[in-house]
Amino acid sequence: MSLERPEPSTHDQVGVTERGLDYEAIDDLLGDLVIGRESHLNAEGFVVRPERVAEALDRLKQQAGFDHLSCVTAQEYDDRFESIYHLKKYADPTQEVSVVVPTSHDDPHSQSGNAVFRTADWHEREAYDLMGITYDDHPDLRRILLPETWQGHPMRKDYDKEQPQVVTFREHANPLQEDHRAGGGEGDTMFVNIGPHHPATHGVLHLKTVLDGETVADVEPDIGYLHRCEEQMCQQGTYRHQIMPYPDRWDYISAGILNEWAYARTAEDLADIEVPEYAQIIRTMSAEMCRIASHMLAVGTFALDVYGDFTAIFMYSTRDREIVQNLLEDLTGQRLMFNYLRLGGVAWDLPEPREEYFEKVRDFLDDLPAKLEEYHDLITGNEIFQLRCVNTGVLDPEMAKSYGTTGPVARGSGIDYDLRRDDPYGYYPELDWDVITEDGCDNYSRVLVRMKEVEESAKIIEQCVDLLEDWPEEEREIQANVPRTLKPDNDTEVYRAVEGAKGELGIYIRADGTDKPARFKIRSPCYSNLQALPEMSNGEYIPDMIASLGSLDIVLGEVDR
Amino acid sequence: MNWGLLQEGNNSSNASAGAANGSANASAAGGGEVQTLPDTLGSLLGLGQMGPLETFAMAVIASGAVATFLLTLVAVSGIWGKRKITAAFTDRIAVNRIGPFGLLIIVADAVRLLSKELVIPDGVDRPAFDIAPVIMVSSALLGFAVIPMGNGIQIADPETGLAYVFAVSSIASLGLVTAGYASNNKFSFLGGLRAVAQNIAYEIPLVVTAASVVIFAGSLQMSTIVEQQAQTLVTLGGLDIPSWYAFVNPFAFVLFMAANLAEVGRNPFDVPEAPTEIVAGWQTEYSSVYFVLCYLSEFIHIFLGGAIIATIFLGGPAGPVLPGFLWFVIKILAVYLFTQWARSAVPRVRIDQLIEIGWKGMLVLSFANLLLTAIIVGVIA
Fold this sequence. Notes:
The complex is a heterodimer.
Chain A lengths: L15 E2 L2 E2 L1 H8 L3 E6 L4 E5 L4 H10 L5 E9 L3 E9 L8 E8 L4 E3 L8 H12 L2 E3 L53 E5 L11 E7 L2 E8 L7 H6 L20 H16 L5 H31 L4 H21 L8 E2 L2 E2 L7 H25 L4 H7 L7 H6 L4 H6 L6 H4 L20 H28 L22 E7 L4 E8 L5 E7 L1 H7 L1 H5 L4 H11 L3 H5 L1
Parallel strand pairs in A: 4-7, 8-9
Antiparallel strand pairs in A: 1-2, 3-4, 5-6, 6-7, 10-11, 11-12, 13-14, 15-16, 16-17
Chain B lengths: L2 H7 L9 H10 L8 H8 L7 H38 L15 H10 L13 H16 L17 H9 L1 H12 L3 H32 L4 H7 L3 E5 L2 E4 L2 H4 L1 H15 L10 H4 L9 H26 L10 H22 L5 H30 L1
Antiparallel strand pairs in B: 1-2
């Protein structure tokens, strides 16, 4: 079967045994850095000394092969603050370990992991911004989501919500100020604010760009314009029903069900809920529809960035995306904010008459190859497009891993990493499909990956439809028996991720014995992917930077949460 | 205006006549004496031998008529046609609510655009900021003074007609850089710089390619160039194929079409505006009536490009059955359609690639074309 992954090359790494990870060996590896152990549902957590975090991460990366810092979660207990570094392996994401860094409550500071994983930079800035933990040796510890002038750290328990906040309205920086940052005095550079209102920023993103002529000397993404306190809101909802609508609003460009699945998977693991097979198939099918819709839009907007406005491709992809949207609307009753998954299954069964629905889906799948052919003619086959996209926005695999990129961005850099296969969930392991990778590492590869993934998603949907069609009527169980109120045990911690449209969408939940999570942390793939933009764009031309941004396919709703 | 009357009054440059007639015209026009529109108007009004004042008055009337026609054409094809064409390319319906086929959107849009607030940003360099759009529009309109539009509609026919067209149309670059520099906006500035770099890089191949036509025609005079193309090139099954320079030298034609796309700033060469990169380039800060002028100048430039192409490559207003003027409009619109097609389907090249194509590709090719043409004409003639 095509799903068989390449032989994992993790054998010579510390702690890898035939029967899974041997945490004792990792304990030995970390040695004197460890001051305690915790057990999370997904992995063992090692409590390390706050002043030697980088060393611990480095040992785990170099010797135990944990090369993927998936997420950094900061949280507050009554007596301490804690940063959790969720580590995985790109080669096998089921091998996980958490590095727990406790700090004192009065003066929370610990060492930064930035030296080992570049992605720690932004994650720690976020932790500093919202939780107020200071990271020593961090290159640039500033607020990231909230305005610079914000007072206090809003996710702290003692945060005064009534406190007036003064957010001055002022220009970002004097755009006419002379700038000599690049090139050592020779030749002036020019500072340009690209965004937050700009045709190519795909939402409200602000790129602080320093130009040397037409070349990008430096670019710094400034995010947070769409920050809606999603984590906080999820912490105020009950597990059973009140949280599920929120994931739709993270990556709101029709990736809703994929996002919902991230929460569903995490919460189901937390509450130990088994999802019926039939519901898994419906989930898989609808999620892949979302992926197609999402990738269609990604390809269309990328064409917008490279071709300019009023081009055919954007409208074509929108037209074809409409069909998927109609299918999703028939299924869920909604076009964007689906709220279709439930803990333990899905909200309702397929629309009646079922045959009609299956026929609609099949019609769509039948037409798809011809349409994709047209896209390839218009986009990937075009010489000018190749001229523009091949070898621009290069993100080499090492950098891609260091920045924690996932999804089509990582796969476009030749990293064979797809959670649907590598950390199986849903019905994916039973189906026949391939993980697409391209070795080009450039804008072109990323577009190609998305277009090919549409084909794979179509394959998955087709198989799901076949299965659903033949499913005996009396066995159509759409939801497991889930208690009305879920109260996971106190201090249960879990971090789970699914393959969202843009990459690894992870959720960390810590339960405190009530029916609401004590800490709800979202690992957004776009957040990590966007951080790699300067790596791809510095030294290239402005149009390439715009194209790279488009090829990252970010949704600001998910970046800012 | 009664075109039929004009046709009657015109007796020498009716290019819609057959090929034989055309060659007769060519010999008749050997002295460069073509009756221009002001002359025709004068004789229609019975002014007889016109003095300078009468000539001036008639020229103003003629220019007004031509400009009015052009602006109408821009209104129809720019506001309504562009939407319909783009919609056809992109599977949409576009305007269809106001008036028949949505045509009244032209009125609605004109009112909408003109009634918007004219925002003059802080720190713009006036009056340069105000002059720039006017420069751009007028430079494009001036070019039409020497274009023979068929049925005797040609305002003037100087001996250096072709040189004049290129000279005035490149004044637009001045407008672009003025707009970019005066706007006090970095995107405008970048757009202005790009526009100038692009226009210089593509103007030279454009002019050099046109020079190859001049070698064929042996004259810079527009009417002569048109007449030369009326001769029969070959006869295919009883059908006379005229010696339009697009048929005589298709290579030059393709080269000119490509360079013209860059000259008018349309995909794949729309880098001076490049909406997704530098917002709207040099026109970022223009609003309301100034924006209308910018918009207008772009379209008139496209039409001027089409008119030049029609004149020097497609036999000017020549064509079977229909009156010459209609053929002329059809040819202009065909070129316009081509630019819209490119806009809908072709990616934009990067600025460095654009300059590279201009200086390393087009320039070399256009000189090669010029040299080859000179050799061929020298050997044959």
